[in-house]
Amino acid sequence: MTKSPAKDACGSCNAIELEPTPMAVDRSRQQFRIPTMDCASEESEIRHAVNGIAGIGSMSFQLGARTMTIEAPPAAVEQAVAAIRKAGFDPLPIPAAAPGVTGASSRMGAPPGLVTPLRKMVLALVLAVAAEAIAYFLSEGTATTVAEMVLALGAIWLSGFDTYKKGLASLRRGRLNITALMTVAVTGAFLIGQWPEAAMVMALYSIAELIEARSLDRARNAIQSLMALTPDKAEMRQPDGSWMMLPATEIPLEAIVRIRPGARLPLDGVVTAGNSAIDQSPVTGESIPVDKTIGDPVFAGTINQSAELEFRVTAAVSNTTLARIIHAVEAAQGTRAPTQRFVDRFAAIYTPGVFVLALVVALLSPWLAGWTWTASFYKALVLLVIACPCALVISTPVTVVSALAAAARRGILIKGGTYIEEARKICAIALDKTGTITEGKPKLVETEILDGSDGEALLTVADSLSSRSNHPVSKAIADGLNREAEEVTGFTAIVGRGVSGQMSGERYVMGNHRLIEELGLCSPALEAKLKVQEEAGRTVTVLASSRAVLALFAVADTIKETSRTAIAELKALGVTPVMLTGDNQATARTVAEQAGIADARGNLLPEDKLQAIVEMRSQYGPTAMTGDGINDAPALAKADIGIAMGGMGTDTAMEAADIVIMNDDLRNIAVAIRLSRKTHAVLWQNISLALGIKAVFLVMAVFGNASMWMAVFADMGASLLVVGNGLRLLRAPSDDCKT
Fold it and tell me: Domain 6-106 carries which CATH code?
């Protein structure tokens, strides 16, 4: 498996760069919504329509949102819009979002005309059925014929005007897409006197398009529903200390916002007052509320559960964690997964191929099979209806988009369809230690009082000394002891060694192994104790008086509670875990054993981690890398799949990664792999369904008694089957994401 950047995964299907103008021009970006742009073939039609227009700098498409963005001078944009309308599409300008409003939110409401109203389709179907009934029950005659024609024309006018318009435009350009095939089939049926059939075909086709569009929108808009989680207004503190309710878009950075119990947070921030439990499931996927206190980060869209909080705003509405997730998933929806690119290429060959087969049946079967010309022509028209590759074409995007949305709901941000498919191939995974397997911050894990000293008094001394220091190890000891600190006089920080101070007339030092050696207080017994702790990967701080060593405090970066389970799940999936860390080998081995990892590699620089990825790929096969720091970014970019921890991770690591775990829970890596495997299975189920149904009806059309409206039913049924099958991914809980 070779890693491809997201921009390459899109290929020409997602963004095209047209020939730039030879001179500097005033270009602007204009975004349009195209309600009837559902699949890659229609995107291709639009690209062909604007091909050759001078001045267009670039065009990009997001099929998931049915949007197109043009970068060009205003005159060129106008020409492009006119050409697109001529091709049978109606681009609707999207106003520039107000400050602080994301693209997703500006598109939440679909404009009128997204799909043909259902009542119009029902009326068309009633007219088509009436025409069929007249043809079946009444004897032939002028009045009967006129009634059939009038009813059929009414049904076609109500249901097929847009289809005809786009189909004729495609035929003029020599492009055999779905609408072109339907236009030819319905016109041909009308010409040979099969008016009720023509009406029924167009009515059923339009209803199928209506149902498909709404089903696809359900998948496409699943992630946008998160925008509703963010309140439009926020209560901000004024300079005089009062509170005022203001639109969230008007809240500046560093403002203080108050959030009451039971309310959703409108913005990202850092708690400045209060203690409460926050339900973070909309952003991180965590099912258990997280306690928040002063200094802790909070996210827009999460729910304050138990008490009033005040927080300092750290991100505008357009840049909150939730907004970035939505933007990233929208961008990912525009990329093409490998299976989707295969299906698009196959459909481009399949549709013209069946069209040629229909011509052969129409022109040669009267001589080869002895059929009448009318019968031959009718069978050819049935073949054209069956040839519509709609079910095949929509089988992949609806599945991929559903999978991306399902992952985002669980706090897993996947940056494109390529990665949702490729993750299933992972054979090995490299895991950074600090912040990935471990908590990423030291904790006091063991305290030992020596020589029968007064333990309570010594713990108070240790807490008093350590609480005066800003060193992470000292902070971990103070937090772990959590006692009432007493006054320290003559406090001194000994650089690289520890601290010292006087309490109750006694001078104490609190420092590392080297300091105790320099003071001449080491003994063989103490050396043995220190060796045991250091071999276990712990940092030991020693409390001593001027005469003797009094106590030992062991601090370590403990592994996360979920790490052991996560490693076990990865092994169960056949993925080999390997730990890579810059820590010493003894610490690496200790942490790896606790987590259940057999292969631990320590003392690694960033370039060493990069080399380790190369070695793992040659040894095991496709390899993923998981990390959270700047030093992990090169390995994340080099791996087949880069996975970043989003909670503690740096922006550099998250930018380099292909998948971001928003809640830092390693178990979500196994969820992502299972989801990838299930997505791949659903993709091929859909392709098999679409092609299988069409193969059966192709045989029936040539050798059996399949009619045109039966062919439309088959195509509609296949489309609904693949859409429904793809949407299952939205409903599946994480435990069910298994092949």
Answer: 3.30.70.100
